[in-house]
Structures are given as structure tokens and as C-alpha cells.
Design goal:
- The protein has 244 residues and is mainly α.
- It contains eleven helices and three strands; from the N terminus they run ααααααααααβββα.
- Strands 1-2-3 form a three-stranded antiparallel β-sheet, covered by helices on one side.
- It is flat and about 60 Å long.
- The protein starts with a helix and ends with a helix.
């Protein structure tokens, strides 16, 4: 066997061993993060892959995982708060399934270090984007559901969201709803929201929204989505008018 051929075989062997080690490492991490040892890592690898890296990315799994998370949280709230009406349960639900909460859970699991990003997306800070991390967390839940079924996904969600499910004794009120109610109670016109700026790359946009109660006060706030920015602006404006 000539030297060049031996070198090529050795190079191939190192690549196989490296890939196997990476797979074992991912399987170990998933077992700790999601409580399930996956026999096939393909969906999980896809769940961790951003669109800047490959067309085979997390978007379809995120669509599925979003619904899995929603059902698991709704079922859990129904069990935990048997005396609460639908409106209160909805407030709790909306506070638990936001992109920011999903991103926070993802950070706690160490997802940023596992993300597969294109160079530009990484340079732009996609590894710490609430939008990206929230979507990836949902995609991982979608992968878990496909791999092991709803019981496994439910168990993972109940473990990962455990500290949040009963964090508020009373159902939290969304800032936009609270601001709307304040305006009505004080005979003011309803709040108006306006996007005044949008910046950043497509995978990590930043929105600036102005919330206004006509002829009274206004407040600006930023967020990684229009909804997030509106919520932050409503919260800021509510604090301002209550301090008057």
C-alpha cells in the first residue's frame, strides 16, 4: 500500500471516529437535557440547525413542537388550577409559552453551544437570539415527540417548566390587557401601537414600538419581534401612567 493511500485511509478513519464521538456526545447531552436517550439523532440534529447552515433546518420541527408545548402546558394548567376560569388559565398559558421563556429554557440546557449556524448568522449573534433559541427549543420538543411520543415530551416539559408553572399565585395579566383596562377605567382612548424602527438581520430582527394613550403619554421599547416590543412598550407606558 503506498503512503498516500495509507494517509487517505487514516484520514477517513479519523473522520469516522470524530463523527461517532460527536454523535455519542450529542446523545449524552440530549439524554440529560430531555430525559430520553435517542436511538436516532437525525431529527435532533435538524432541530439544532439554523437556516443559514442548511435547508434541512429546524423550521418544520419548530412548527410541530410549538403545538406539542401548547397542549402539554394547557393540560398541565387545567390540572394545577381546577378553580380558575378560562380567562385566568389563558393568561397563565400566554405567559408560559412565549419565545422569551422558551429561549430561557434553551439557555439553561446549554443549547447556544450546540447550535449549527452559518458564519454570518453566528457573527450576527444568532446563538443568543431569543427568536432563534425559542424556535430551537420548540424544535427539540418536536423531535422528541416524533421520536418517543407525547408522554416523553410531556415529561420533559413538566421538568423544564416546573419552576415556572406555579411561580405566580394569581394569573399574570398581559401588559397590553392591563394597559387597555387602565385606559378604559380612566375614560381614556385605547392604546395605539406603532412600529417606529426595524433593524438587524432577518434571523435576529429588532423592533422598536411606540405605545401611546392619545393626549396623555407615550413610551418606546424594543423587542426581538413586533409582539415582544409591543408588550414591552405597554409595560413601560403602564408604569408611566400609574406613576402620574
Amino acid at each position: 500500500m503506498d503512503l498516500d493511500h495509507r494517509d487517505a485511509l487514516e484520514s477517513d478513519r479519523r473522520r469516522v471516529l470524530s463523527a461517532a464521538a460527536t454523535g455519542d456526545d450529542l446523545a449524552d447531552w440530549l439524554a440529560g437535557a430531555l430525559g430520553h436517550r435517542a436511538p436516532d439523532l437525525a431529527d435532533y440534529e435538524r432541530a439544532l440547525t439554523h437556516g443559514s447552515r442548511s435547508d434541512a433546518n429546524y423550521e418544520r420541527l419548530e412548527f410541530l413542537g410549538d403545538r406539542v408545548l401548547g397542549l402539554a402546558i394547557a393540560e398541565w394548567l387545567y390540572e394545577c388550577f381546577p378553580g380558575e376560569p378560562e380567562g385566568a388559565l389563558s393568561k397563565r398559558y400566554n405567559a408560559l409559552v412565549t419565545g422569551a421563556v422558551c429561549a430561557d429554557v434553551a439557555r439553561g440546557l446549554g443549547v447556544p453551544a450546540r447550535l449549527r449556524l452559518g458564519k454570518q448568522a453566528r457573527d450576527d449573534g444568532a446563538h443568543d437570539s431569543d427568536n432563534v433559541l425559542g424556535d430551537v427549543m420548540e424544535a427539540l420538543l418536536g423531535a422528541l415527540y416524533r421520536d418517543a411520543g407525547f408522554d416523553a415530551a410531556r415529561a420533559a416539559i413538566r421538568r423544564l417548566w416546573a419552576a415556572r408553572i406555579t411561580a405566580d399565585a394569581a394569573a399574570p395579566q398581559h401588559p397590553k390587557s392591563a394597559l387597555q383596562e387602565w385606559a378604559a377605567a380612566h375614560q381614556r382612548k385605547p392604546p395605539v401601537y406603532e412600529v417606529v424602527d426595524r433593524s438587524g438581520p432577518g434571523h435576529a430582527p429588532r423592533f422598536t414600538v411606540k405605545a401611546t394613550i392619545p393626549k396623555l403619554a407615550e413610551a418606546l421599547a424594543e423587542g426581538g419581534s413586533k409582539q415582544e416590543a409591543e408588550t414591552a412598550a405597554a409595560r413601560a407606558l403602564l408604569e408611566k401612567v400609574k406613576a402620574r
